[in-house]
Design a protein that fits this description.
The protein has 228 residues and is mainly alpha-helical. The protein contains ten helices and three strands; from the N terminus they run H-E-H-H-E-E-H-H-H-H-H-H-H. Helix 1 packs across helix 3 and helix 4 runs antiparallel to helix 9.
Length: 228
Amino acid sequence: MNDHGKVSPARRRGLADEVADRIREAIFNGAYAPGAQLREVELSGEMDVSRGPVREGLRLLEREGLVRCAWHRGTTVTTLSAEDVAELDSLRGALEDLAVRQVIARASDEDLASIAKTADTMERAVDAHEMVRCDIAFHDAVFAASGHQRLADAWDGVRCQVHLFLLTRIGLTTEGYLDCVPREHRELVAALHARDVETALELFSAHRRHAVDVVSDTTDPSIRNALK
């Protein structure tokens, strides 16, 4: 029997995955802001690995939308354009509206309690970056409670970009941020517990719009126009 049709040997990519995890974590911690240069030589030295896994790890992050690679500029942390923000907001809204409807129709009391627990952690966030993580964790819990695996997978495909968007938001201003985010999420939890579809959809939409308004409140008219 010849080898035609057999799958090729699996590649071990554990080190590249670990490199990607560490760079992603650094981005989410604010060590690398949008637009920051990510140099393979420096990263390989800091992580004590060869440049191959670093290059492969950066490609993984590029597929997630967290970094962009260009031959003339190298690799940089993604800076979201006006079109990026508008597309991300519209897609997130479509996914989240379905998730909210699914949660209200199908989630158990235990599921709702799990969502509420993630909102409670926001009260203990000590800085804006930790609050962003809590915000993402809340929405993770909402999609997990939807009972819709393909919907949860679709969210997983954009969640890193949503995280980057929220980092962009706090990079512009954090005034009132640590106070307003927990309050907004308490309202979201209350609407889900009440299983009030219309109110929940309105509150989730307002929550998204609040962040987008901060990003669109800029001197660059192209961003304001794209988000209208």
